[in-house]
Write a structure and sequence with these properties.
Layout lengths: L23 E5 L5 E5 L37 H6 L22 E4 L2 E4 L13 E3 L5 E2 L2 H7 L6 H7 L4 E8 L5 E9 L3 H9 L6 E3 L8 E5 L7 E10 L2 E10 L4 H17 L2
Antiparallel strand pairs: 1-2, 3-4, 5-7, 6-7, 7-8, 8-12, 9-10, 10-11, 11-12
Length: about 270
């Protein structure tokens, strides 16, 4: 019989440590403001709830119920004079919610301290992707957000760019993934100008509850695919963008509520 040589297994491909917001293209508008246009293709991967960890079921004697049985048996005299007494297992208290250590303050629209402090807090039951406090973005990561276009950091610098932070989480019901990105600029005027010139090649939508905001929506061709929304605005010297991905056609009410809460958080500093 002919023999065949074994086929070597393919090497696994490492997954990225953190997903950044969708890449966008950058250009200078004729009015001198920054115009940003989306270049990414429509997302067609349905958002799913990650698999839960299998539970370990305790057996009658506290051992895991995996076909393991105790080897010792009670003595005849003990079984004749005493009956088994059930023991109560103390309830395990829930793990305490992590306490953030980042600090910040705002005065007259000027934000000081760690920019991560001003990221919209994750709602109860939400699950963070990556650090709970969010992440400070490097210049390379910021450039990647804007498609690694030539001169992007120089363009941002013309608006007095200082630093950036981002956080991604999934809502408690598992139906939406939210990415919040903050860009810190030199002044309220510069942050506002950047936000006004930030546009995308998608259908525009109104954002309720945030007077400076404008938004965009991508509706999937099929309800089994992922739709997305993006809101863009500024408060003080910070420009903020919120991306929401959901299965099916997005409801802009969710984005409007998130934008309103982010604006209030930047205004008050918590």
């Amino acid at each position: 019989m002919p023999t065949t040589e074994p086929v070597p297994a393919a090497e696994p491909v490492a997954a990225p440590a953190r997903r950044l917001p969708r890449a966008v293209g950058v250009a200078l508008a004729t009015a001198g403001l920054l115009a940003v246009t989306a270049t990414s293709a429509a997302v067609t991967v349905a958002v799913g709830k990650p698999e839960s960890r299998p539970a370990v079921v305790a057996g009658p004697t506290g051992t895991a119920a995996a076909g393991v049985s105790p080897t010792a048996s009670p003595s005849p005299s003990a079984s004749a004079t005493a009956s088994a007494v059930p023991t109560e297992v103390p309830a395990v208290p829930p793990a305490p919610k992590p306490t953030s250590t980042v600090k910040g303050s705002v005065n007259g629209g000027k934000h000081e301290g760690d920019l991560r402090y001003f990221l919209l807090p994750i709602p109860d039951g939400g699950e963070s992707y990556g650090p709970v406090d969010g992440a400070t973005l490097t210049d390379d990561e910021v450039s990647e957000m804007f498609g690694n276009q030539d001169g992007i950091m120089r363009i941002l610098g013309s608006y007095g760019y200082k630093d950036a932070a981002s956080r991604m989480y999934r809502t408690a019901d598992g139906k939406a993934e939210v990415t919040v990105t903050l860009l810190h600029f030199g002044s309220t005027r510069e942050a506002g100008d950047f936000a006004k010139g930030y546009t995308m090649k998608q259908d525009s939508i109104d954002i309720d509850g945030d007077p400076n905001a404008h938004g965009y929506v991508h509706k999937p061709k099929q309800q089994a695919y992922t739709g997305s929304m993006t809101g863009i605005s500024s408060q003080g010297d910070v420009q903020y963008t919120i991306d929401v991905e959901v299965k099916g056609t997005p409801d802009k009410a969710l984005l409007s509520e998130l934008m309103k809460r982010q604006r209030e958080w930047l205004s008050s500093g918590g």
